[in-house]
User: Fold these one by one.
Assistant:
Number 1:
Amino acid sequence: MGLLGFYLRKLVTIFKGEIFVLPSRIVVFVFVVVLLLFPVLIDDPYLLRILTLASIFAIFAASWDLLSGFTGQMNFGHALFFGVSCYTAALLNLHFHIPPWGTIPLGALAAVLAGLIIGIPCLRLRGTYLALTTLAFPIILMGIVFALPDLTGGELGLSGLERLAKSRVAAFYINVILMIALVATMWKITDSKTGIIFHAIREDEVAVRASGINTTRYKLLAFCLSGFFAGISGGLYAHYMRIAGPSTLEVSMSFQVVIWSVFGGIVTIWGPVGAVFILFPLLEFFRFWPEGRLLMFAFVILLILLYMPGGLLHWIRDKIESECPRCKIRNIATRKTCRICSAEMH
Amino acid sequence: MIYDIILTTLINGSTWALLAIGFSLIFGVARIVNIAHTAFYMVAAYCIFYGTYRLGVHPGLAVLMAIVLVMVLGLICYKLFIEPIREHEAAVLIATIALALVFQELVLLIFTGDFRTVPALIAGYLEISGVKIAYQQLLTIAAAGVILAGVWTFLAKTRLGLAIRATAQDREVANLMGMNEARVAMLTLVISVALAALTGAVVLPLSVLNPHMWMGPLIMMMAVVVLGGLGSMKGSFVGAYLLALSEALVVFLIPKGAFLRESVALSIMILVLLLRPEGLFGVAFEEER
């Protein structure tokens, strides 16, 4: 009992010292708790479906940020990873009857392979050239998908995949917990030494090379890591929707992920995730006027960008938090002195 | 068959060349990747459709109206949505995607998603050894040639053209030499959008209108621009006809080729990039590579 009390007190201290000191951390905490408790509180299949899809796409958007935000390798064909993994998972599941826990990692591996294949030619390209070239890859694959209808199902795609889980709630929990775990992993990666090198490659590649770092290897690593995470989201999508169709390779899919990431704020990982959880339900909310749904969506994006070009969530964070000028620790904006080094704020 | 291939190549190539030149102009001068470029082309097409069918004006007049309207539209969009956020490149990119979506949805709301056609400016056809060539096709090719020559002369001979080329080469130095960079960027945008509208006017009678018609040319336009080298007019020209020829060959000679036409064209682009990362005629600037 005493031991339990000790751990409880320790937990409370951690919460007070680490989470409740910053509004952004409170928001993340509340978000995770609400997401995990959601099926218990509200039992609405429609809302559950929206949130499940949102968590799948959150992984996808965050993986784009890992590659294009952090490493600066503008990828306009991110749908390639998603689609490759979708089709791989579907083919393995339909022809070899491998259950979802096997097909999703294998699909992700296929996406890593795709990342290697497109990464190697793209290493020589930079900036806009890279962006416009990567746009081509999913379209090339889509042509092949249409040309081989016997294998890929052509325009209709492959349907009838095994369910992710027996019940709707179980599928929701699988997706949400995987999303939280994978996003946390990505965030950890970007915080590690590798992540710092990714940052540096975006800022000044020549300087990184001059420091004796093999940028080629790190750029390929970024392609593979991003492909892996995008691949997992693709596999989850295939098994959740129980269909793998050419729509996963479309240009709009690639654009969608860029919209989400830039809307939330790139080079953050949490930005794209938050943006998906805002924009995806928003698009559903606009169903009161079905014809104007996309129009309103596009206008919202235009207006938000006009006032917050660095991304919505970035802007909000800068409003409620400020950085200590001396020790660079973030503080709530209302504080007069820094919580760590007690220096004057401003 | 050979005539078909040549004709398709010429028409598609001219379309893409015109679109690609406009796209790379605004990219070169203002570093704006204008995804909405082909959306302007679609808007122009619908304007002409509206003018000729709903208002009943002469097609030539409708073309003129459409070009002016699209230029004004482009200017408004630039002033409202692009200029305030120009230093954030990623944001500009998304803004242009969003603009394209806005145009697509507006057209969808006003004209519905039905497929529509516009009458040819000149009816009738010519017969060369058993192959029918519509006068409209000849007109399209000729008009594209004239426009291309016009743009070429404009860039090479006029003072504004010189300013545009100078700004594309080095923005800061051009600014120091007394060119108003913001003005040049704005004018370039208007010119590039007008080129998109002209392309729409020229190609329109040969194609089918629908609100999603901007997607296909967008991809091929980008492929042409990358293949030819960003900012190079000669590159866009050669790249466009090269890709158009490859596409026509695939469509006419390979069974089921229609599915693979984009794949093959884009694969050629990637193969060329493997050998020459800056494109066929691109000049690799130190800072960009």
Number 2:
Amino acid sequence: MAAIAIGYLVVVTVAAVGAGWLAPYDPVSTDLDHVLSGPSAQHLLGTDALGRDLLSRLMYGGQASLAGVAQAVVTMLVIGIPLGLLAGYAGGWADRVVTWIVDVALAVPVIVVLLMVLAVFRNNQTAAMLALGILGAPDLARIVRGSTLAVRNELYISAARLTGLTSVRIMARHVLPRITGPIVVRASLFAGGALLAQSGLSYLGLGVQPPAPTWGGMVADASTVIEQQPWSLIPPGIVLGLAILSFGLIGDAMRDAAADRSSRQVVKASARRSSSGDVVTKTQAPAPVEPESTALLSLRGVGIELATPAGQSTVAENLDLDVQSGEIVGLVGESGCGKSMTGRAVLGLLPEGGRVNAGRIVFEGRDLTTMSPREIRRSRGAGMALVSQDPSDSLDPVFRVGHQLDELVRKYHKGSRKEIRARGLELLRSVSLPDPEAVARRYPHELSGGMAQRVAIAFALAGSPSLLIADEPTTALDVTVQAEILDLLRGLSSTTGMAIMFITHDWGVVADLCDRAYVMYAGHVMESSPVGRMFANPLHPYTAGLLDSTPRRDVRRQLLPSIPGTVPSAGEWPTGCHFHPRCPLATSVCEVTAIPMAEPESNHHTRCIHHTQVRRGGGNGRSGALA
Amino acid sequence: MVRLIIRRILISIPLVVVVTLLTFLLQSLAPGDTARAILGESYTPEAHAQLSHELGLDRPMLVQYWDWLTHAFRGDLGVSPISGIDVAPEIANRLSVTLSLTVGTAILAVVIGVGLGVLSAVRRGRLGRAVDVISLVGFALPNFWLALVLVTVFAVAIPVLPATGYMPLADSPGGWLVSLVLPVATLATSAVAVMAKQTRDAMLDVLSRGFVHSLRANGVSETSIIFRHGLRNAAIPVVTVLGLLFVNLASGSVLVEAVFAMPGLGGLAVQASTQHDLPTVQGVALVFTLIVVVVNLVVDLAYGWLNPKVRVR
């Protein structure tokens, strides 16, 4: 699209600049024998009321338009860039002055000033376009200022400052190249606006004077003969509209390109996925076992895929997971191992393009994967609910807490406004908020992180869910507040019989809160068991490594061991056991064969064939050697 | 609330002064002047000097500005040297035309633009692309050209609407409405496009926020998420855009009024500037600046009302 736009502008520019050689006729020579002719072999685009060739007039008319646009854009750049750099780089009073100028300029009625300039300078188009550039400069300055502020504190700028480069040199050499993107975008969009203004003024008969051809003037000429020859309206309108459109398209394309650059990190990670993804799927472990009928939530053989720019990518596969009524189950692992997506899959809220591509998710005896979105929606809130990681972003910022709570309560309770509110306050009290009435009157931004998370929990409790999915609900909080929230969740679970699926990477939380835990790595459950046994006797080297790398006060060490390497992103999963490249116990079998889940002790599952060799602390290969 | 309004007004005063002073000083750069314009054919240096003195034009620029400003403050914007008519009442007469045009367009832009934007944010896919195309086309079509095309179609080819002119509301409400259809349609094309695109972007942004995920997870219906939570949050950036849009409409109305021969402020500005009628241009500049100031004030108030984080208690 942008290429076509640039191509079109090049053609228009060549036609305008080269009009003297290329145009078939003199733009002002009249031919009264061929007045208002439509397109013909003689006059490709027809003629106007004086028999002047429209194509030639269009080509010559482009000169005034493009010159005007160039004048305005250059003026804007020359004034706007230094102003913006000054404000963004120097800060202080310079920033305040420039910001004030920008505020004033944004309130200036542009068209009136242009009319005035044309009145004062006797229809001098150059003066008008320079004025337009001046009026456009503050807006550019604002953009340059913002970009400069973002760049200014980066390391290499500080380094340049330390080496004694002058500010002007730093701005010209180091800052300016980094902020050309937004400048070009702004200039392109402004060029479209300038062309619109130029043609508008020439339509009004201001600026370049007839009989010299202008695009706007041609539209005005056409307007006088609308009834006889409406055609003559078309060529200047199309040429003009396409030119403005081209400037807009180029600006949009530049902005999209800039946005792509900033998110390339993410895209790059996912772009590599698709290659190995299929291979992994084929080496899947054997058929799922029957779900235990007693479980509140039961996942069997669940696979999850997400949409990425490079296609669908599997982020979790062959998941078996159970949560019993009233049980608190931990889902543990490093970031990027698929635990949050597992939580979202259970809620039926995978990101757009994501889906459960295998297995069953049975909740309260019903398979969610076969239910319609509407049915799943109904099960949310009343059946299961969510408390998410960042309390500052989990409440709607524009409504008071009480108002939002009322909406949730009203879904599950019929009653008068008063009764609804009373139930809401009861919920706030149940999450140990000291003054529920005051909290209900507040907006989310007026709450501390801990209070906001309590409110978020109250929201989740509104439908009396039997399962609460808690996605790292304490990660964003202070340590003391974390403990309070954990106490609260434990208390709620024991008084209401609500089960909790607790997604976390924090072993302290697991030890403190959970009955059982699942350890996830690269989309697989690696080990599951009651928490006590997992700590005392892990049966998977990944679990052992994670536990060893958790700081403990009771063991004195010089250096905290860590697991070498990092979690592979989805699509880069190795064959065989996903953990084998980082595993001290890996053998050649682990590299090629998908390892099935084993149950060496009752209720203690591990996806490791070397589980008898797994030891915590010093006995665990490389990670132990680090100690 | 009252304090916020007073503070905004106080901030606006220097703004109005600066803009009007700039336009005033611009006149001193003019090769011709008012006395010369009045004298026209009967120009002689002596007559010129005498008339300049009578009109106070031989005084220092700043004194003249102060004189103009104090008079303007009392609602006296001087007399047009060309037509001999008082500028202030003339502007007051024409303001209703421009306001009918711009306010009508703004209402259309909000209703249709926001509706399209929400629809395309929720449906995405084909409709989203359609809104993209519409907004690009709306951005690209020069409104004076679009106006002529509309006239060609709806007044010449299928003569159902008047090609030009304006009927005051007081004379005939029906006629007023009919006379506004084509001008408003012209201005609204780009305005609707802008609003649709901005609304869609704002809605998509809001719908990707964490709290929307939480609301969904806790069982809030999709209808409530889109219309209560989504739209209310999206309104915050959209209102800012609406303010800018309205300011642009005031500018756009100049051309559209010219095309449709409407007796509004825009037509007056064009006529005055071609005739070198500086008191009138100055008066129109003042009124346009005041419109901008008032719109910004309204936007600020709406912004504060919509966004509790900046609300002044």
Number 3:
Amino acid sequence: MRPPPWPKALGLFRGSSLAPLTLILVFAVLHIADFALHAVLRNEPDVARRPAALFTGAAKKSLVLATNPAARAAGVEPGMTAPQAVARCPALVIRTAQPAAEIEARAALLAVGFTFSPSIEATAPGICTIDLKGSGAACPERSRRAVAELARLGLPATAGLARTPLLALYAARATASVLLVADEENFLHPLPLAAADPPAELAAVFAAWGLRTLGDLTALPRDEIVRRFGAAGLALWQRAAGGDTRPLHPVVPPQTFAAAMEFEDGIATLEPLLFILRRCLDRLTLELLASQLVAAELELTLRLADDTAHARSFRLPEPTADPEILFRALHTHLESLQTAASISAVQLRLVPTRPLVRQQGLFETGLRDPHGFAETLARLSALVGSDRIGTPQPEDTHRPDAVKLRPPAAVIPPPAPPPMHPSLGPPLRRFRPPLPARLEFSGGEPAYLWTENFHGALATRRGPWPSDGDWWQRDRAWARTEWDIALADDGGLYRLLLVDDAYFIEGEYD
Amino acid sequence: MATAPEILAGLRRQLAERFPTAPRAAARTLRTGLAAIDDAAGGLPLGAITEVVCATPSCGGHLLLGQLLGVTRATRTRVALVDATDSFDPCSFPVDLLAHLVWVRCPTATLSAKVSAMAGALSATDLLARDANLGLVVLDVRHAVERELRRTPASFWYRLQRAVEPADLALVVITPRTAVPSAQLRFILNASHSVDALGTGRPALTATLAPALQRQRVAPAAVA
């Protein structure tokens, strides 16, 4: 249930520009109201602006748990049944809680919390309490940035700063952005009694007594409250007074940087998938930055509706925590990806590493823009195939045209000394596959050559040069005979090839 | 009555006044080590397209490519070769000469694939021309299907020229005939090797290369 509207806080300093900060701020609270609803809606950007409500289930009798502002404006309230809610707002978007989305939203909230301080507590769903000791005087400004960051991540949050965790929570709940509690008494006095979460039986008694605000309750002698209501009364009185400082239950900073999302209906187009991945990357890079790490590798797994999976690993040319660069790597790959079925779940994992800190050498010829180069290669791979781009590396064999491609080196090595025996003749310009050729013989000697591309009388012929290899492997054995020929008409020099009684032109000397 | 050059000069002056642009640095070039090119044009212009027309078979197009690989290897400049017809033979070159090369092999399994390979090669060149890490990009369409070459719109080559202009790289297009209207520099290789070339050392053979300058739209200037 949403708390009742609270009166405007009195005697408060809003923002750092007005706050003299004479008090010692010890705690901050980042608060996301209707957390479960926003955890779901943040993954559906087109739904977020429409009236939407979170229900207890998918059944007809399910009840409204939470609503967004558009739904509240249309008159939908928590506790309504689905027919009642839809009767008031026919365009209402109905959603149920998604545990995976809540886990992801909780991780995003904590990731932003870790940018404040390493000592944070996941107090409750949508509530992150931060110990500010040693954080300096810029806390209001940093709180504002944290709220903006959470808004960027799709989570509308508020922040409160105060002497105790409970007081900071009251402040976060009482504001629409950031609230710094300087005058505790004036702040607490007008807050409704419901803010202190009184037990139902105590709330009924106090209502009968005419107590409406926290100030009304704390005006009563504490000992008299204890004498009449025991420990429960004492706890309520202390909560009404703003509580005490307490040690937090710190959350351990993440050791692995992974995100997972499941989709009820499956994703069949690129745009929503990219949106989800961007959300995940924004959160993961925040966690990396808080841990002072960068990503060396990205691992993407897409689970498909037909129970198959597509997995791809992206080795980054230079470790980074820039979400834009990481996103570009994913985007480039996914642009050209076609799957047999819709995507039912996505997993993303960043392999962390320490950032590389070194000075560029004066004569170093590394990449000017490593990420740009990686993206160019990825786009080229999508265009011509990943096995058709790279630095050629002749294989250690005499088999003709045995070349493999390896990824281009990040740094070009210094040139080797020139070879003792330089190559002879012009390089070969290959025909792949070799051109089938037909020879006409005159007097037992080849005299004329025919191919689909050219033909002509043979002016000169050198050879033959027979060669073979891999004869010990039946399926890889090869044997061939070569001639170098010159055509009289066009003056071209070619390599003529005889394999299994068939003639081919293997290439042109160019 | 004003002559055509005067009218053209007047138009250029008006355009320059109406659409002023930032002054550009003097054109820089990439020395090739070949006297015929370096003496005539100062080398290959950076930020511009150079077309090398291989008008006859065995005229030395790949020999020139080997020379470019050699000079860029010495300066450790990264080179990309877009091989539209998958005709480059790495085994014809020393292994060390390939350490800085990014070879893009456009597939040529079938005729239809070959046709689409041309479009793929042009797209690949467009991508590489925008990469800041490369000093030289070579597009080899020497064995491309004639009708595909003819079908390539002139606007593509001008677009490519615009893409290269702000970059610090030289773009060389090896063609079987003049095909690049936006080329700032054009050389023609029209002398086939003799049979004796097959027994001649590669450096000596390269020194005999004499590409003829056919077009020069950039003034020779500073050397890269």
